[in-house]
Specification:
Strand content: 5-15%
Largest sheet: 4 strands, antiparallel
Low-confidence stretches: 394-407
Structural class: alpha+beta
Strand order of the largest sheet: 6-9-5-10
Shape: globular
Radius of gyration: 22 Å
Number of helices: 21
């Protein structure tokens, strides 16, 4: 047995297949993948890694299995899947995942090839575990896959607490011990036992509060957009493939950006935190439907049109359109008077959080500081933003501001 001191869960005991998997290269690579990517440019202490998080997910999965009375090979498969659930992450975690998916068709939980061959496959086979079945659990398949990837998964329980701990933001604090203890299966569905509507709401509320404060903080979004732009140009300017890049770590990507003439400026800005500024920060109601529905190619065309209108270089404009707010946690299931009900049907809090998420949503247009005013004016014209329908404002007081900012 191996015991590891963890900043969140204290001592984590690892044994069996998980202990053997710990020192395989795909798991050790996670030491060099930041958990929150560019969020560390906002919260300097948020320098924890996917490796730490994977240990935490393993720990909570082990606790849940014990509570549920699941043992033997079935439990070992879940423990392996919990430890391995993030081995497919690309550099900077989710920050460049959309770009890689466009080119490879794979997300971070598509781990079949990583688990089906090489050192991980050997360890799994030595412990009598089928790599394909473990990969299926990582993808959330089957009844027990819900523990690893689902609305009430241990992944979410760990990252909320861990991210809150390392950022110093209190909003992600949840009673993860109670959540794990109250899990049960009803007709193949993972649910929270009777009397736990508020427990489920706490998970929902924590995620809703962490989103604008941490995960969607405007500085992190700007840096993430610049990283994506640089990575896309790196793939276009070099022989690097997206398949190869998705197996790099954070340092590999940053070094590659520095060494490429087309992307060294992005690397320098990210390293020195010399980031673009908000030229436009627009609410949902100000943005035409066709802009909200724009795909990657359409966004690129709009960026070039804004740059032409503002008479700036095309690299000086980044358009950031987040997806429509969603709340998967609202489909979590809880037992109420013996019936399994979706949280969204039982909790009046859900609708309030949905409205808050829509209010917090922002479209961003980013540009270097000395060009942001021109870019902001051009973006409003080119995108057809509705200044009367909802607020569109620049970071500085004055341009594109509303009257209430002067009160």
């Amino acid at each position: 047995m191996t015991t590891i001191k963890d900043s969140v869960h204290d001592h984590i005991e690892i044994q069996g297949v998980a202990a053997a998997l710990l020192d395989t290269p795909p798991v050790q690579r996670l030491r060099h993948i930041s958990q929150l990517g560019t969020v560390t440019l906002v919260y300097p202490s948020a320098n924890h890694t996917r490796f730490e998080h994977s240990l935490g997910v393993y720990h909570l999965a082990d606790r849940a299995l014990s509570h549920l009375g699941i043992e033997g090979q079935q439990a070992e498969r879940v423990r392996a899947a919990a430890l391995l659930h993030d081995v497919g992450h690309s550099p900077y975690s989710h920050n460049v995942e959309a770009l890689i998916h466009r080119r490879t068709g794979k997300y971070h939980d598509d781990v079949d090839e990583l688990l089906g061959d090489g050192p991980v496959a050997r360890v799994l086979s030595e412990h009598g575990l089928n790599p394909d079945r473990v990969a299926g659990l990582v993808a959330g398949e089957g009844e027990l896959g819900q523990l690893v990837s689902g609305e009430l998964d241990v992944d979410r329980m760990d990252y909320l607490v861990r991210d809150a701990h390392h950022t110093g933001v209190p909003y992600g604090t949840i009673d993860h011990e109670r959540l794990v203890r109250e899990l049960c299966f009803v007709d193949g569905e993972l649910v929270l036992d009777e009397g736990n509507v508020q427990t489920a709401e706490s998970l929902l509320l924590a995620r809703a509060l962490m989103n604008p404060t941490v995960y969607q903080h405007h500085v992190a979004r700007i840096a993430k957009s610049m990283l994506r732009r640089g990575t896309e140009e790196l793939l276009a300017a070099t022989d690097t493939t997206a398949e190869a890049l998705r197996r790099w770590d954070d340092n590999d990507l940053l070094v590659a950006l520095r060494q490429c003439d087309a992307t060294e400026a992005y690397a320098g800005r990210l390293s020195q935190r010399d980031l673009y500024k908000r030229a436009v920060w627009a609410e949902w109601g100000a943005v035409p439907d066709e802009i909200l529905a724009a795909d990657h190619d359409a966004v690129g065309a709009m960026e070039r049109a804004i740059a032409d209108e503002a008479n700036v270089d095309s690299d000086a404009v980044v358009l950031d359109i987040p997806p429509e707010p969603s709340m998967t946690e609202s489909s979590s299931r809880v037992l109420v008077n013996g019936d399994v009900r979706r949280l969204g049907e039982q909790s009046t809090l859900v609708n309030a959080i949905r409205a808050a998420q829509r209010d917090q949503w922002r479209l961003g247009v980013y540009a270097p500081a000395d060009e942001s005013e021109r870019v902001g004016s051009a973006a409003i014209r080119e995108l057809g933003l509705d200044l009367d329908g909802a607020r569109v404002r620049d970071v500085r007081t004055g341009i594109h501001a509303t009257l209430d900012e002067f009160n």
